[in-house]
Structure formats: C-alpha cells, structure tokens
Write a structure and sequence with these properties.
With 357 residues, the protein is α/β, with parallel strands linked by helices. It is 55% helix and 13% strand. The chain is built from 13 helices and eight strands. Strands 1-2-4-3-5-6-7-8 form an eight-stranded mixed β-sheet, sandwiched between helices.
Length: 357
C-alpha cells in the first residue's frame, strides 16, 4: 500500500513538473515571437535604409555625369562660387535664386533675356555647383560674397539685379550695401523679413515648419527619400523638360540641401538684415515688385501688404500683381516670364545712353 502511494505521488509530481514546464514554455512563446518580430522589423528598416543610401548614391553619380557645371568656379575669399554668364548684351542682368533653388532654376528666364542682355546666374555658398564654406549663412554674408563674385567675374557696374523669394532679401541687402552697383532691382514674390510674424497664426507655424523641414532635408536626401517620391518638385513648379530634370537632380543632392539647411538655420539673421534695409530705404532706385496671387486666401491680404511695403522702399518703385501665378511659377514659368522680361527691358531702356547726345 505504501509503495503504491509512493508511486502515485511520484507520477503526480512528474505530471505537475511537466505541466509547469509546459506552462513556462507557453509563456515564453509570445515573447519569442515578439523578439523575432522585432529583429525582423529592425532588419527590414536597416535594409530599407541601406537600399535608400545605395539608391541615393547611384542617383548622385548619374546626376554628376548628366549635369556638369555649366559655368565656372570663382574664388571669393573663403569659398569658390559657381556662376554662369550667357548672352552678349551690353547690360548685365544678375539672378539671385530662392532658398533651396539652384542657379539652373533660372534657365527659362535666361533664354528669354539672352538675345538682348548678358545674363549671369550663380549658386550661393553650398548650393548647386558651388563649394561649401561651412560658415553660417545669412543675407548679409551672401551680399558680401556676391560683390566679391561680380569682381572675380569682371562684371561691370551697374547691374540689373533680380531676386526671387529668399534671393529677394539677398538682392535688397546687396542694393543697400552697394547702391552704385545696382541700376535696377526686380523682386519676384520676394520673402519679407517679417513674414514669420505677420502671416496668420496657422501660416506662421507653417513657415517655422518649412524652415525646420529644410534643416531635415539633408538627412532625407541621405536615404534617397525625396528622390524616390519627388518631394521637392513643387519648388520648381514651372520648369519643364531638361530644365526640370537638371534642377530636381540638384535639389535631390545631399550637398545642395546641406547648403539650403544652413540658409534656413540663419533665417533670423537674414530677417534682421532685411529690417535694416526697410529702415534705410532704397532711395530712388528703379524697383519692380512682382507678386504672385496664388496663395491661400487667408494669407493673401498679409502677403500683398508686405509686398506693397517692399515696393515702397524706393520712390521709384512699381507693384505688379500676377493673379494666377504661384510662388515658384512667377520666376520659372514661360507663362509669366514675359512680364519680367518687359520690366528688364523697360528699366534697361532708361539706362541706355541717348544716341542723339
């Protein structure tokens, strides 16, 4: 009887141990599944990132082969900047691009001006085909380097200076700092130094998000995200064909977006430089301000008010509202370029010497 009890107890204990082991094993299975799933997700993410980097590298190699620099690099002190000049006219027109836009984004306007003018576009520090100095960027520094660049290229004074968006702030600062070097100033939907504070609240946040986005862009480019999804295409809305492909290739490059990020990071210094121009004014400088009308309806009143103020920087300022153009198209689309060309010709005609005298 005692032996039977011992046998039953032994069997029962063995069954309990087996059941406990089974329960422990069952408890481990979900965690094993979680770990395996985690490893799989991490592996997939790493594979996607590695694939994105390879995709980006191949794209940049291809772009470098397809789109060599059309101009030359010129030493302006601490960095060499890229500038290309076309056309054979006596009067030189210099083009200053917006934040994030390479010199190539001016190509349609260049073609329209080349028959009558010498047209020069350039890439600021770190943009397009220019070198990157590593220095903090702002409109004041850009103005100084533009002056050095014009000297290096031996461009005679005075020039007709055209600035789009952020390039409009650079152009205004240059006109204030070097008034004898600017015969006329044309602003295309130019950034305003106070727009971050005077837009409606939702747009103020949108502007801050835009600056933050520019600073994030080099990291996105590193993994080929904008290249895969054409994220930067809206910045060159209006360009077509080879002009579009060339500019998009530069926007998708890591180096170009690093330069853009530095300009975005220095916006407050640029705004301060713009306020100095607003305080000093531009005298009686020949000034044309073109304003894109295709802005969100909530933003348009404050935007047109700020653009009116820009036109009033000079006693010789003119304001033109282009109702259907958006911010990019006003300087890039063949539909609106004739308006800019007419303004250049009108201002240049007033500069030309009278042949009867």
């Amino acid at each position: 009887m005692q032996a039977r009890s011992i046998f039953i107890q032994t069997v029962w204990e063995r069954q309990m141990r087996e059941r406990a082991m089974n329960l422990q094993e069952s408890a481990k299975r979900p965690w094993r599944l979680v770990r395996l799933t985690g490893f799989a997700v991490v592996g997939l993410v790493l594979a996607v990132l590695a694939g994105g980097m390879v995709f980006q590298r191949i794209g940049e190699i291809r772009a470098a082969s397809l789109y060599p620099a059309p101009g030359e690099l010129y030493d302006v002190g601490s960095v060499s900047l890229h500038m290309v000049c076309r056309g054979e006219g006596d009067q030189t027109v210099v083009l200053s691009s917006g934040m994030g836009n390479p010199a190539s984004s001016w190509r349609p306007l260049e073609r329209a001006l080349e028959p009558d003018f010498r047209v020069c576009s350039y890439d600021r520090d770190g943009l397009g085909w220019s070198e990157d100095s590593g220095a903090p960027r702002d409109a004041g520094l850009a103005s100084d380097r533009l002056a050095r660049l014009l000297d290096a290229v031996s461009i005679p004074d005075p020039v007709i200076l055209i600035g789009h968006s952020y390039g409009g702030v650079v152009a205004r600062v240059f006109a204030k700092d070097h008034p004898a070097r600017v015969a006329a100033l044309i602003l295309l939907d130019s950034s305003h130094e106070d727009m971050g504070e005077r837009f409606p609240p939702f747009a103020q946040q949108g502007f801050r998000d835009l600056l933050d986005g520019f600073q994030l862009a080099p990291w996105l480019n590193m993994f080929g995200v904008p290249r895969a999804f054409d994220l930067f295409a809206p910045a060159i809305d209006g360009l077509e064909g080879a002009d579009y492909e060339r500019s998009l290739a530069l926007l998708n490059s890591i180096s170009h977006m690093r330069g853009t990020a530095e300009e975005a990071r220095g916006w407050e210094r640029t705004a301060a430089a713009g306020r100095m121009v607003a305080q000093a004014g531009l005298g009686d400088l020949a000034l044309d301000v073109f304003v894109a009308g295709d802005w969100p309806v909530e933003m348009l009143p404050s935007w047109t008010e700020m653009q009116t103020e820009l036109s009033e920087l000079s006693s010789n300022g003119q304001y033109s509202f282009v109702a259907e153009a958006n911010h990019a198209q006003i300087g890039m689309s063949d539909r609106y370029i004739p308006l800019v060309v007419d303004a250049v010709r009108r201002r240049a005609a007033l500069l030309a010497p009278d042949p009867t005298q």
